[in-house]
Amino acid sequence: MARVKGGKHSIKRRRKVLGMTKGYRFARSKKERAAREAIVHAGKYAFAHRRDKKNDFRRLWNVRINAGLGKTLSYSKFIGAMNKKKVLVNRKMLAELAEKSPETFARIVKHVS
Prior knowledge:
By secondary structure, the chain is an all-alpha fold. The chain is built from 5 helices and no strands.
């Protein structure tokens, strides 16, 4: 049986790795070992930051709701009152209402308090 060296596949694999790191700086875009390491790290950060993004948005919604409430009520008391009254509007929608249509948001606040 003939010996198979696999050069064609090795080159394909290297090109694929370097293609994934296109636009990276210095050795990370030119050298295979550094590029592989960069890909692994990028994957880790992407995974972690997808979760962080959810926290960031929740924090943003809280700030927008609190700004919409103004001096009338604190955020925590408002959310507590909503839970007691069993008003099922999530924070994302409340933040959207507070920003885009304050009169509707004011009606919800009046209903809750």
